[in-house]
Amino acid sequence: MRKILYICCRTKNCSSIMNSETYIHNPNRYESMNYRRCGKSGVLLPELSLGFWHNFGENHDEACGLDIVHYAFDHGICHFDLANNYGPPNGAAEERFGRYMKQSLHTHRDELFIATKAGHLMWEGPYGDWGSRKSLIASLDQSLRRMNIDYVDIYYTHRYDPNTPLEETMQALVDIVRSGKALYVGLSKYPPEVARKAYAYLEAHDVHCILYQGRYNMLTRQPEEIIIPQAHANGTGFIAFSPLAQGLLTDRYLQGIPDGSRMAVNHFLKADMLTPSLVDKLSLLNEIASRRGQTLAGMALAWLLRDERVTSVIIGASSVGQLKENLRVRENLHFSEDELTAIDNVLNTNG
Ligand SMILES: NC(=O)c1ccc[n+]([C@@H]2O[C@H](COP(=O)([O-])OP(=O)(O)OC[C@H]3O[C@@H](n4cnc5c(N)ncnc54)[C@H](OP(=O)(O)O)[C@@H]3O)[C@@H](O)[C@H]2O)c1
Fold it and tell me: Alpha-carbon distance 303 to 240, whole Å?
């Protein structure tokens, strides 16, 4: 699907093809993906979206990242999830994404749904963190510059700021939409009681909140209790982050901690999480997945998508191979009652 210009790739685990100007998109890219509606909005998102939290910072090969982005786009993943602070260092993922836009994706801008966020520490001083109007508006302007785009499709408040009046944060989102710098807005990690008020404020100002972004995977099921039903009742889509529990819900850690894995190199996934009882649990899940003819990663993603209220899951991938494997989720999205019970039994085991 593309003319190839080879440029040396420095990473071992990624057979990279840097192909900026010669990139020709796959004309059949939308045929292999399903799209789900964000709540009651007009927006459809691919069942799998691509996240830029890791794998697109200065410690990852840029050409390899471009391959991942091209492969995603070529397979119908048109939603890219970023944030001001993704890197490392902060801002690096957006800068890199900006170069990808310039090099090869700008002609497809209208086919892309690009997200960014503000709310975690981004720059020094009193305005580079949390949820003030000053911080959200300044941060979005920076993000747009880094990403080489005029507007984002969705802008999230990355986390609830208990020290800023909710009305100030929400009004900033309303004004950002009015300014045209974001088409839609969303909440990330808001506690349910605050999310309820936020939804109401936005609605009262004619800005519907189209997405709630929360951590949801087989090992973290809290959103099932309030967040997902609440979002659904509000006509807001739910988008799951860390659907593979940062790689735990794959075969990556079944035999220990491999070199180069997130657990080996990154403090966000700590080695002391990998207890013998967790490994037992993952091994049992892996067996269930094999019986379904799926990898553990594939089953973990399918398990999230079993719920129609989940609009999309945002996966991370450190190689095209991982992305390829994860896209195979669509080969088996159905679960029998017996399979769901067997999975619940494993997940409910103590330890
Ligand atoms: N709103 C928020 O506060 C928030 C928080 C976190 C994340 N997010 C969003 O959600 C996105 C996804 O989060 P995440 O990266 O934690 O997602 P994830 O899909 O749970 O984990 C991705 C990691 O799992 C490993 N992996 C993926 N597929 C694999 C496979 N088939 N086989 C083996 N290992 C595999 C890779 O780690 P290795 O590096 O070990 O290869 C990969 O980097 C982020 O990029 C971000 O956009 C949002």
Answer: 12
Residue 316, ligand 1, Cβ within 6 A: yes
pLDDT tens column, 205-233 = 999 999 999 999 999 999 999 999 999 99
- Residue 14 gets which letter from DSSP? -
Residue 1 scores a pLDDT above 70: no
CA 315 to ligand 1 centroid distance, Å: 5
Q: Are 167 and 194 in contact (CB under 8 A)?
A: no
Ligand 1: does its nearest atom lie under 6 Å from the Cβ of 243?
A: yes
Residue 78 in any domain: the answer is yes
Q: Could you tell me the pLDDT band of residue 267, with boundaries at 50, 70 and 90?
A: confident
The mean pLDDT of 117-126, rounded to a whole number, is 98
Q: Would 18 be classed as within a structural domain? A: no
CA of 321 to the centre of ligand 1 (A): 14
Closest to 38 in 3D by CA, of 140, 113, 149? 113
CA of 179 relative to ligand 1 center, distance in Å: 32
115 lines ligand 1 (CB under 6 A): no
Q: How far apart are CA 41 and CA 324, in angstroms?
A: 30
| Nearest CA owner, ligand 1 atom 21 | 246
What domain count does the chain have? Answer: 1
The mean of the pLDDT values for the chain is: 94
Residue 183 in domain: yes
Distance 174 CA to ligand 1 centre (A): 30
Tens of pLDDT, residues 224-265? 999 999 999 999 999 999 999 999 999 999 999 999 999 999
Give helix 296-305 / helix 276-291 axis angle, nearest 10°. Answer: 80
Residue 94 in any domain: the answer is yes
Q: What's the predicted TM-score (pTM) here?
A: 0.95
Query: Does any ligand 1 atom lie closer than 6 A to the CB of residue 245?
Result: yes
3-state DSSP call for residue 162?
coil
**CATH code assigned at 148:** 3.20.20.100
Mutate to test the pocket of ligand 1, among 69, 85, 219, 244 (most ligand atoms within 8 A of CB): 244
